[in-house]
Amino acid sequence: MAVPDKGVLGPLAGVRVVELAGIGPGPFAAMLLADLGADVVRVDRPGGGGLAINPEYDVTNRNKRSVIVDLKAADGADRVLDLVDRADVLIEGYRPGVAERLGVGPGACHARNPKLVYGRMTGWGQEGPLAQRAGHDIAYIAITGTLGMIGNPGEPPTVPANLVGDYAGGSLYLVVGILAALHHAREHGTGQVVDAAIVDGTAHLTSMIHGMLAGGGWQDRRGANLLDGGCPFYGNYETADGGYMAVGALEQQFYDEFIELLGLTGEAPARKDLARWGELREAVAARFKERTREEWTAVFEGSDACVAPVLSLSEAPGHPHLAARGTFVHHGGITQPAPAPRFSATPTHVRGGPAQPGADTEAVARDWDVPVLVQHSGITTKEDS
User: Fold this and answer.
1) Is 213 helix (H, G, I), strand (E, B) or coil?
2) At CA 294, angle to CA 291 and CA 297, rounded to 5?
3) What is the pLDDT of residue 6?
4) For residue 50, what are the β-bridge partners?
5) CA distances from 200 to 52, 182, 206 (A)
């Protein structure tokens, strides 16, 4: 694996981002921009806030710098607007109207910097009946139909952590929107507001499924379809030691190899006979229970049967393929995913650990050429100079 050139910051080197501290998808989106080389300055509030995670381990704040500004103080908004003057992008994740009340809404920011891309990250969006309601990932994906797709029939829907809503439907769509708006700003000289709502992004993720539903190729219930566990050759199977193997042998040639290595050639019911899918699933499940996860991993190693062991979070970095690619890195005592995707001319890397609140105040003021901010007992003031 090639070692990233530490002198190359990534394809977004030179882009300046102001992140108004929040939780969940906003910080993750800002981390992605920082991983890609942007100079991300996180504006933390006095006393911290958000989820109870030690800042030293909050990987979503890696590759960033932090200043502390009390936006409720008399000059708080002005301090942020000083940064906005020099920024290309701002990210905020407040409820609709809060940024405006704090004096750092799109109007105030664009008055100072017309080219600014103003990224807004919410669950419900900036308007609509639920816009002012509290919420979290699980509720956002629930009303889009996405949560209802996941899980076994006859059981409650499976909660996919906060990956589908917060990060896939939220953070990634915010980043796509920011990059598109940044391109437009550089071409036309005008910034704009990016309204990234988790409900919108999560719904968008189901585009293919909606097409299949309209065409009669998808049933509107869990565990009855090709990709939701209903198919006996696309799902997870328990092994003799309580582990699991993931099977995705959809195409005929892959399925044939899967059945051969499983030792069911000539015994398994025809895969196209949907009426016998239950029988096929039972045969596959019984065979997987005969060996351990490690033994089955060895059986399918090097094959095109589309079978892989289901690893835990702590096991994943040790997988030979991921280790060879450097998919995970160890930085500052924390094993964590490496930046993604990869670039041939502007490689990315973890440049620094999680930004500690207020640790970079003077450095940011110097580098961005804004008034120095000094925090005293939770109060942010302009330093006399």
Assistant:
1) helix
2) 95
3) 55
4) none
5) 28, 21, 10
Segment holding 373, helix H or strand E:
strand 373-376
**Cα 192 to the chain's mean position, in Å?**
23
Tokens 């600014």 belong to residue? 116
End-to-end, the C-alpha distance of the chain in Å comes to 49
Q: How far apart are CA 86 and CA 66, in angstroms?
A: 16
Instruction: Report strand pairing: 16-20 vs 379-382.
Output: unpaired
Question: Residue 280 contacts by C-beta under 8 Å, 6 or more apart in sequence?
Answer: 232, 233, 268, 269, 271
Joined together, the tokens standing for residue 21 give 């501290």
Other C-beta atoms lying within 10 Å of the C-beta of residue 333: 8
What is the rounded radius of gyration, in angstroms, for the C-alpha atoms of the chain?
25
pLDDT in tens, 32-91: 999 999 999 999 999 876 566 888 999 999 999 999 999 999 999 999 999 999 999 999
Instruction: Mark 222-242 as b/e (b = at least 16 C-beta within 10 Å).
Output: bbebeebbbbbbbbebebeee
Rounded CA gap, 81 and 369, in Å? 13
256-310 pLDDT tens trace? 999 999 999 988 888 989 899 999 999 999 999 999 999 999 999 999 999 999 9
Question: Active-site positions?
Answer: 136, 166
Q: Give alpha helix (H) positions in 248-360.
A: 252-262, 277-288, 293-300, 320-325
pLDDT tens digit sequence for 124-180: 999 999 999 999 999 999 999 999 999 999 999 999 999 999 999 999 999 999 999
